[in-house]
Every structure is written in C-alpha cells, then in structure tokens.
Amino acid sequence: MIDMAVAEVVDATDAVPAGNPALAAVVTRVVTDSRNVRPGDLFVAITGERHDGHDHAAAAAQAGAVAVLAAHELAVPALVVDDPVVAMGRLAHEVLRRLRVGGAPAVIGITGSVGKTGTKDLLGQVLRRLGPTVCPEGSFNNEIGLPATVLECDESTAYLVLELGARGLGHIRYLTGIAAPQIGVVLGVGTAHVGEFGSREAIALAKGELVEALPAADCGGVAVLNADDPLVVAMVARTAARIRTFGLAPAADVRAVELTVDRSARASFRLVIGDASAPVTLRLSGAHVVGHALAAAAVADALGMPVADIARALSDAVRQSPGRMAVTDTDSGVTVIDDAYNASPESVRSALESLSVMARSPGHRRSWAVLGEMRELGESSGPEHEQIGRFATGLGIGCLVTVGEGAAGIHRGAVSAAAPTAEAGHQVNPSTSRAVFVPTAEDAITLLCQQVRPGDVVLVKASRAIGLDRVAAALIAAGRSGSQGGTR
Known about the structure:
By secondary structure, the chain is α/β, with parallel strands linked by helices. The protein is built from 17 helices and 22 strands. It folds into three domains: 4-81, Udp-n-acetylmuramoylalanyl-d-glutamate--2,6- Diaminopimelate Ligase, Chain: A, domain 1, CATH 3.40.1390.10; 104-316, UDP-N-acetylmuramoyl-L-alanine:D-glutamate ligase (3-Layer(aba) Sandwich); 326-481, Protein-Tyrosine Phosphatase, Chain A, CATH 3.90.190. Helix 10 (230-233) links the parallel strand 12 (222-226) and strand 13 (242-247). It is globular, with a radius of gyration of 24 Å.
C-alpha cells in the first residue's frame, strides 16, 4: 500500500475521528484480522457471522495499529464510519486513483461461474514476466477481498489482477466502482449460485456488469470473452470495449489446437493467436485448465506480450491456490486430488473426468470419488446431484463415496444408474459395491483409511462449507505415515 496519513484516510472514508487518533501518523497497511496487525497498520473492524472485529480492537491497538476503522466509538483511537466494509472500499478506490495518476497499474477483472481463481493464478504468473503484479493466492472476490487486494498495490505495481464474484445483480457493478477495470474477462455462465439468481440468464446479466464497466476501445478497454459459451458471446452487445475471444471454437481470436491430455490429466496444445502459434504443456491437472490458460493468454496478448513468451509462461506456471485440483502422490502410493474448495455441477463433472483419465493409466488404478453437497443450486439441487451420481457411474468410477444428507441425491443417482430397480436409499457394502453413502466427513475418513490401498487415486470435492478438505488432508497424512490399509 502507498503510505497515507491518518488524516488522509479520514478524508477518503468520510470518517469521524474518535478517541484522539494521531492524524499525522502514517498508515502503511490495512488489515482485517487483528492477529496479523503490526505497527503502522489500520485495522478494519468487520462484523461477520461468527466474529465481530470490534471485539478485537484493543488487541489491534496493542499490536501497533495506528487506528481502527470502526462502526462506533471504541476505547482505542478510531475512525468511525457508517459501514467499515464500504469505507474500506472507498479507501481502496482512493489509493488506486492516486496510483493511476501515473498511468499504472493496469487493472484486469475476472468473473465467471467457474474458474476465476485458477485463471487469476495463471494470469498472475504470466504477467509477472512483464512487470510487478499484485495477484494474491486464494479467492478474494467480494466486497472485502477485492479492496484488500487493491490495497496491496504501491507505486511499483504495473498490473493488478482481480476476481469479481457475485451473488446478485449489482454486486459486480459495486466492485468495479471500487476498481474500474481496463480489461475484463468473462469465463462462462454456469449453474453455480443459480439458487440465488434463479436462472443462468440472470447469472449472465450479473456477470455482464463487468464488460459494461469497461472503457471504450479507443480508451484502452478490452473485453475478453469465452467464445464457447453463447451467453458470454452475447455480452458483445453490452460493451464499447474492444472484443477478444478465446476458446476451442475455430473462430476464437485465441484458441487451442492439437489438444492432448496425458495420464496425469495435464493438457498439451498449440496456442494460436492470429498468425502466430507456440506449444504449451501445462503442469496443472484437468482438461478444463485449457480454458483458463486461453483466457490468460488473451489478456497477455492484449497487453502486448509475444505469443512465444505467453506459451513459455503458461508452461512454467504451477498451482498456487489450495483446494483446486491439487494433486499429491503420497509415500504409500496413493494419489489424492484435493478439489474441495468449491463445487458446481460443471466443476464436479470436469473433476470426475480428470479422475477417470488418471485412473486409466498407467495400467488401471482403482478410482475413488468422495463427493459432498454442491450448495446454492436452489430448486435444481435434487436433480443436479442425481445427475452427478449417474455421470460418475457412467464414467466407471471405481467407488463413489457420497458424504452428508445434502448430497444424498448423488448416491441415489449412482445407485439408480448401476441398478435401476434398486431402492433410492439402498445402502451398499463398501467392500463389494461402487456406491457408498456416509453421514459425515469423519465417517468418510474412517472408510477411506480402511479401504484405500497403494496405487489408488482419490478425488475429494464439495462446496467449501462442507469441509471435505479434512478428508483430503487426512488421506495425505495417512499416506505419509504409511497407515493406509486395504489389501490387494
């Protein structure tokens, strides 16, 4: 962050000083977790579902915070505002405004139902070849995470890569009001959060707020759109920015040809942009990563990076954010695919396809899919979960372990696909059958540690709130200690 006097923060946030803060003191960083406070920080007291940051204001001051951005007066120096989250956004907007007086950084916004974080991670690694880039690990795509990312910028920052999430109309518009993008990427319109939006068309309406926020083409605006998604292509009519498309479609401006996938589900292809092309071999598992790579390539091309350099950067890129197709080969010979950060029908199908590829070679490995609930699907939740069960069975997944009542439809779909006459709630013997239902993550851990054996490959995936990352962690720990059981 650029240094700002407390008085300047007051002006940027329309705050009222309380408790005699030192207005001449310099703020060097903004934090929302009191445990991370160090001298010179501004602590933002956010009231969440489980914790109220105001309760930790004294600890923040004790650790050296120069002031607390708060919703009410405290026993420590405070800057009082109506809403600390909104005020944090205003501060981020002011910091970015000051930086852009000098022309930098270029702001790239990424949205879409699936793949925002993976694309952001790839793009960050590519753009670092061009100059200093702010692109944090993890998913910081809401009204707290986005301004926190903006506030990491300083005078050296050349590129700022942002995720923009939405749970309703106007959310992305609000985020672009904090950090107006120069380049906007729309990855796709899927069914994630359809329970909140009501339809894919409503999701498209919300995601398209990103391209509406872009400057016109003659002012440097670029809309990077997925040529393989008709709802995204239709967003052309919603922007005056220059259009660049990416995808497998022959008409895409940035496309992949000669696509192959190896036994670890890692893709290789020839990147084609105009008359230029170069080979790419990704280090990341999952054929769906090709789309992420093409989106990143389209942005890098728009910023003037040569195709050969883009291809090399993509080939060198590694996984950064946890819980997203993170593949671990344990000492005991078990491969664990931790994709438990989030889940939608589209991403679960992609993960299952990758599992199937990895299980087929070398030889024929036993495959396990440990699946939990996909949240926020609304009225379509039941049918979508059952379709996933049928899809997994159709792929020939060796054993499908469904975790929790919220995901019970996956089990019903798998059982009905394997034996159409079976009762929907039929419980199957895990030692002999391909479909198992367990109530909790702890039950899944017990089952897997007993049944998984060397050579097996295990996918773990669910919406983040389900907490199946514990299952992946337990399998990896067991594999390191050599305690995984099972006999051939």
